[in-house]
Design goal:
Order of helices and strands: EHEHHEHEHHHHEH
Radius of gyration: 15 Å
Strand content: 5-15%
CATH class: Alpha Beta
Strand order of the largest sheet: 2-3-1-4-5
Largest sheet: 5 strands, parallel
Structural class: alpha/beta
Number of helices: 9
Mean pLDDT: 93
CATH topology: Rossmann fold
Number of domains: 1
Shape: globular
CATH architecture: 3-Layer(aba) Sandwich
Distance between the termini: 26 Å
CATH superfamily: P-loop containing nucleotide triphosphate hydrolases
Length: about 170
């Protein structure tokens, strides 16, 4: 199956956005970050209606990569995609990933994280317990007929890109 519509999901700090950029660069598919749709530069958010309308516009297109979890809209994205990349990495790896990006300008976020927000830290700590079971449940419901690739390490993601797309680590 030729990938035309891919979602990249998993815990914050797992490496989703880095992988998504590499996938975009290797495939030429347009990349959309849900964080850039939801968050505004002043650290407020758009309305749910605005977010949903923008997501619907993207989903209606012929080709895309969508990076981000956003469990509220995961089901509709799973229904629309042909490929799923799930980053199921250990909690400590994700926490370290966020720690290392603090103070860095990123194309997937409209501001620079200045500190590790305690609520965000707690969300990551509880991701495996609170979010991951539902993700696997939805994969069971909507994964048939789709390519579902699950990474347990960043090295697995690097190897997949290199193997599938012929691109080494950037």
């Amino acid at each position: 199956m030729k990938m035309k519509k891919a979602i990249v999901i998993g815990c914050s700090g797992s490496g989703k956005s880095t992988f998504s950029r590499r996938l975009r660069d290797a495939t030429g598919l347009p990349l959309y970050y849900l964080d850039m749709i939801w968050h505004l530069p002043d650290r407020t958010n758009v309305t749910r209606e605005e977010f949903d309308a923008r997501l619907a516009e993207i989903l209606a297109r012929d080709e895309w990569i969508i990076d981000g979890n956003y469990n509220r809209t995961l089901e509709v994205r799973l229904q629309a995609c042909d490929t799923v990349f799930l980053f199921d990495l250990p909690t400590e790896v994700c926490i370290d990933g966020v720690r290392h990006r603090i103070g860095t300008v990123r194309e997937d976020m409209p501001w620079v994280e200045e500190e590790f927000d305690p609520e965000f830290y707690e969300w990551i700590e509880n991701f495996r317990r609170d979010r991951l079971p539902r993700i696997y449940e939805l994969l069971g419901m909507y994964g048939a007929g789709k390519d579902v690739i699950i990474f347990h390490t960043r090295e697995e993601a690097d190897a997949w890109i290199e193997s599938a797309c012929g691109k080494g680590k950037k």
